[in-house]
Design a protein that fits this description.
The complex is a heterodimer of chains A (108) and B (252). Chain A is mainly alpha-helical and 108 residues long. Chain A is built from 4 helices and no strands. In chain A, helix 3 packs antiparallel against helix 4. Chain A is flat. Classes of the chains: A mainly alpha (108), B mainly alpha (252). At the A-B interface, helix 1, helix 2, helix 3 and helix 4 of A face helix 1, helix 2, helix 3, helix 4 and helix 5 of B.
Chain lengths: 108, 252
């Protein structure tokens, strides 16, 4: 087992870097609030960032189970359809998609 | 704010956290199991979930610590994997949260799932209590999941797999909600281009690469828009409105 000092240092360093990455941009952006570019980026980014997150996470799931690509596809379709057809209730769509995924993985 | 509406907001925050929690809790369990199986002390799981609190990189950290990876390598890895967070402050609704300790916590706990949950919530429905409650519960699922994983590790049969799909589902649902207006089409197209390019150019670092390309494309879009507006200052209104009605016509 690695020694105690090393483990504590690793956790502290990782924590410090993570919190700085989250906090510093807010501080840097404060004087730039009035910048038109910053405003436009703020408006345009959510849609794109969410799409990118969805694609990357799905790709990771496919890479983790390359044999079960169809299960990922079915669960994604169920999530989308439930969301669009059942009144965009996020919780319901997430439960439905995940339930189908877990069930199909268990059966096949 | 009255006590009752704070309670209502806290309830809303708890409900916000449930869907995300379905994915976070099992991942926490995976982290706990991994820690014990790597031969590391159990307390490393809650320590990581409290000090670092950034899902994916914690799983990496466990493997790296178990292999006694040099600290400088650990620092570089964390910097690279978590660098994506610098893009969130441009749109994360931090101004909703009360300044002070509450806001500091909200920044510290700005995980992908919190960003996805709150970036689109209309300002009128959002509140400091709602966001904080949601974020606190998200972290609670992660810490508790880790502890359950640690406890389970010793007596584990086959675990049920696939709950991590909830995180995919969260991002799919949020993307669908973001895509409701036609004005979002350019952003979606540019993001699609960015993520495709990133998958081809930088396998293994798709997320960060995609965000960098996407930001560059949006900056180009801004410059293009500004040049267009400067060229025909009088035509902005008409160009914009005719463009929009032109887009809508096929539907009507």
């Amino acid at each position: 087992m690695p020694d105690l000092g090393y483990m504590i240092a690793a956790v502290m360093i990782a924590g410090l870097i993570t919190v700085l990455l989250r906090a510093l941009p807010f501080a840097i952006l404060k004087p730039l609030r009035k910048s038109k570019l910053v405003k436009r980026l703020g408006q345009w980014m959510p849609m794109g960032i969410l799409l990118i997150l969805a694609v990357v996470v799905l790709q990771g799931e496919i890479q983790a189970r390359p044999q079960q690509l169809w299960i990922v596809a079915v669960a994604t379709a169920v999530t989308v359809l439930v969301h669009l057809l059942a009144g965009r209730r996020a919780l319901l769509s997430i439960f439905a998609g995940t339930g189908v995924y877990v069930l199909l993985l268990y059966i096949f | 704010m009255t006590e009752k509406s704070t309670l209502g907001a806290a309830r809303a925050g708890f409900i916000d956290s449930l869907g995300v929690g379905l994915g976070i809790f099992p991942l926490g369990i995976a982290l706990g199991v991994l820690t014990v199986q790597a031969g590391l002390p159990w307390w490393l799981t809650p320590a990581l979930s409290i000090v670092v609190f950034a899902g994916s990189v914690e799983l990496l950290l466990v493997s790296m610590i178990a292999a006694s990876t040099p600290l400088i390598t650990i620092a570089a890895t964390v910097l690279a994997v978590n660098f994506r967070h610098v893009f969130y402050p441009l749109s994360f609704p931090i101004s909703v949260v009360r300044p002070g300790l509450a806001r500091a916590y909200s920044v510290y706990a700005m995980i992908d799932e919190a960003y996805a949950t709150y970036v689109l919530l209309p300002r009128a429905q959002n509140s400091s209590a709602r966001m904080l409650t949601g974020q606190v519960f998200m972290q609670a699922y992660w810490v508790l999941g880790g502890l359950v994983g640690v406890a389970l590790a010793s007596m584990l049969p086959e675990p049920i797999e696939g709950f991590e799909f909830a995180l995919c589902a969260v991002f799919i649902v949020m993307t669908l909600d973001a895509a409701r207006s036609k004005n979002e089409i350019p952003s979606a197209v540019l993001a699609g281009l960015a993520v495709s390019a990133a998958m081809l150019l930088a396998p293994g670092a798709e997320l960060l690469t995609a965000l960098i390309i996407f930001t560059a494309l949006l900056t180009a879009r801004y410059l293009w828009e500004r040049r267009r507006d400067l060229r025909a200052p009088g035509d902005i209104e008409t160009a914009e409105s005719s463009g929009r009605s032109g887009e809508e016509e096929p539907r009507a």
